């Protein structure tokens, strides 16, 4: 069964850190672009970060540059999103996507940044 499973979300204070993980099963992520997206209540889903399949080049949306780091471990079939210096506006449901065919999405993991 082809699927992505995200984990690592939770409640954190402003300025804190979280590390999200996205483990793929049923296919290999090797050679495929992978990305993290988020959707806050009442807003559209947006791309947060993407890492290419061949060169592992990262790309970030402007609002997270310098704070978030996307990485991948193809041997573990897993993609990560290290989030540092979190802001309340980072609160959202975070999704992982594999750029395979029409796209494979995970179920999401909630990140809440609040004091």
Describe what is shown at a glance.
The chain is an all-beta fold. It has strands spanning 3-7, 10-12, 18-25, 34-39, 46-51, 58-60, 68-73, 78-83, 92-98, 104-105, 109-113.
Features:
mainly beta; 7-stranded mixed sheet; 115 residues; 4-stranded antiparallel sheet; globular; single chain
Query: How many β strands by DSSP?
Result: 11
Helical amount: under 10%
User: Mean pLDDT, as a whole number?
Assistant: 97
Low-pLDDT segments = none
Order of helices and strands: EEEEEEEEEEE
* Number of helical segments with 4 or more residues: 0
Report the biggest beta sheet as strand number plus sense, adding barrel if it closes: 7 strands, mixed
General description of the model:
This protein has 115 residues and is mainly β. The protein has strands at 3-7, 10-12, 18-25, 34-39, 46-51, 58-60, 68-73, 78-83, 92-98, 104-105, 109-113. The strands form 2 sheets. Strands 2, 4, 5, 6, 9, 10 and 11 form a 7-stranded mixed beta sheet that branches. Strands 1-3-8-7 form a 4-stranded antiparallel beta sheet, with no helix packed on it. The protein is globular, with a radius of gyration of 13 Å. The mean pLDDT is 97.
